[in-house]
Amino acid sequence: MSFVPRFRVFTPDGDHAAFVQLKPGIEDRLRQLDVLRKFMIYKAAAGFVMVTELGSPASIFVVAVTRARTLGAIRGIRRKPVRFGKIEWLPAELIDDSIAALLPPKIVAVSKDDLAFMKEVDETGSIEGIKWQRLTKSLR
User: Computed from CA positions of residues 34, 39, 42, 45, in that sequence, does the dihedral angle turn out positive or negative?
Assistant: First the structure.
């Protein structure tokens, strides 16, 4: 079963949705997540929400990350008929640090090559295995 984590990224120019079709190999997945992180750097992201389905136990897993806080929740799924279980809030220490690390710090140095890559990826709206789109415009 293949799951597609969905991200809602909060940036100064509005919210963006990113859909990551995870590849099977861990190295490929890490590269994909690095591209997502670079997208967040380029957009000066202040936070994000990640939602994905888990296979065992069948559930929906949600994590919200800002510079001030990380929150997580899990909710079981029953398939026939479709029903959802009780929401279980997770303490921050149970959420893998690698998820929160996707949000870049406020200040970060990037190379010219990385900046060119980030600009190209933003303009095309996708790269193999990852698509994103602007959901809302900035309220500013």
Answer: negative
